[in-house]
Amino acid sequence: MTRQSISLTQPNDDWLKSQVHSKEYSSKSELVNDLIRQARNQQKRIDWINTKIEKAEKSGFTKDSQDDILAQAKSV
Prior knowledge:
This protein is mainly alpha-helical. It has helices at residues 10-21, 28-59, 66-75.
């Protein structure tokens, strides 16, 4: 594991401290790692949706219904 030094605005630091204080997380590092994991997962979903959009734009149409596309997006 690598160590990093970061600077936070006061409101962000206060929020991190409150999360640790509420026992939601055991440390700021754990919370920051969890936030990064969530952001990475969200980016994977966005990338998947963008790929579907590009494919649909190139083909001119898709046979998938709106419900199908939504279900597929939620499963990513």
